[in-house]
Specification:
The protein folds into two domains: 2-99 and 247-275, Rossmann fold (3-Layer(aba) Sandwich), CATH 3.40.50.10860; 103-241, NAD(P)-binding Rossmann-like Domain (Rossmann fold), CATH 3.40.50.720. The protein is an alpha/beta fold. Strand 5 (87-91) and strand 6 form a beta hairpin. The chain is globular, with a radius of gyration of 19 Å. The longest helix has 13 residues, at 263-275. The protein contains eleven helices and 13 strands. Helices cover 36% and strands 22% of the residues. Helix 4 (101-112) crosses helix 5 (130-141) and helix 4 packs across helix 9. Strands 2-1-3-5-6-4 form a six-stranded mixed β-sheet. It has a six-stranded parallel β-sheet with strand order 9-8-7-10-12-13, with helices on both faces.
Length: 276
């Protein structure tokens, strides 16, 4: 039996056991995937369990995505560029840290908005935190020619733009209107949208009608930003698919089968969200 996990603190809210449990059952794999609450002062002790052979790997969520760096034997280039680890794999008796968030972001748009990256155009990314880094890496890989990072702290946005290799520029959030006219893609990577929160004075009417709007927040599924975009006649993609697709590479590495993200799986998680 192969065993995997997701660790965090707290962790009871995680949908990952439902997601991976669905795939384990669908593909008839002898294994399990469970959520384990690991306080920060017990992280080192937990990695000892992983190295002992108890698990083939697992996922890492808050608050451990940066702390786990120093406990890995190897960090892959994507995780190093993003500055966080969300996937652990035991490989040749070494603990390897990876990050699949950029893959999940792009794959979600591939599935829900085919052709979204064909124009290789201009994007706005709202936020300059850890989630923004994964999205920026994805957009650079897909060939976007200009990517504006907008943040309440313009300096933090500029610092991030200077740190990462790519066609990035940093701006204050209040510069949205003057940049929006040439935008092909708008991405929210902040936590705004959760618990009914919304952006103040974000003039979506300044965007071209062809622009695509996506939000990595998926609780609620249709955030205030996405609802406003719909009212403005713009195309939208919710963030649930990013969660689903980022899980694919880890599952394949641990269990030897590449799983498929289906409408059945998506519906299952939507129902779980409704119940929570």
């Amino acid at each position: 039996m192969k065993n995997a996990f997701v660790i965090g603190h707290p962790i009871a809210h995680s949908l990952s056991p439902v997601l991976h449990g669905f795939w384990l059952k669908k593909y008839g794999i002898d294994g399990f995937y469970k959520a384990i609450d690991v306080p920060p002062d017990e992280l080192n002790q937990f990695t000892s369990r992983l190295r002992s052979g108890e698990f083939v790997g697992g996922n890492v969520t808050l608050p451990h995505k940066q702390a786990i760096f120093d406990l890995c034997d190897e960090i892959d280039p994507d995780a190093r560029a993003i500055g966080a680890v969300n996937t652990l794999i035991m490989r040749d008796e070494k603990l390897v840290g990876s990050n699949t968030d950029h893959l999940g972001f792009a794959a979600n748009l591939d599935q829900m908005a085919p052709g979204w990256d064909e124009k290789k155009g201009t994007a706005i990314v709202l936020g300059a935190g850890g989630a923004a880094r994964a999205v920026l890496v994805a957009l650079a890989v897909r060939g976007f020619t200009q990517i504006h990072i907008l943040n309440r702290s313009a300096q933090k946005a500029r610092d991030l733009a200077n740190e990462l290799p790519g066609p990035f520029s940093g701006h204050a959030l209040n510069e949205f209107a003057e940049l929006a006219g040439a935008i092909h893609l708008l991405v929210n990577t902040t936590s705004i949208g959760m618990h009914g929160t919304s952006f103040d004075n974000l003039p979506l009417s300044a965007l071209p009608k062809s622009a695509l709007i996506t939000d990595i927040v998926y609780t609620p599924l249709i955030t205030p930003l996405l609802a406003d975009a719909q009212k403005a006649g713009l195309r939208i993609v919710d963030g649930l698919g990013m969660l689903l697709h980022q899980a694919v590479p880890g599952f394949e590495a641990w269990f030897g089968t590449r799983p498929e993200v289906t409408s059945e799986l998506r519906d299952l998680l939507i129902e779980k969200l409704r119940q929570s």
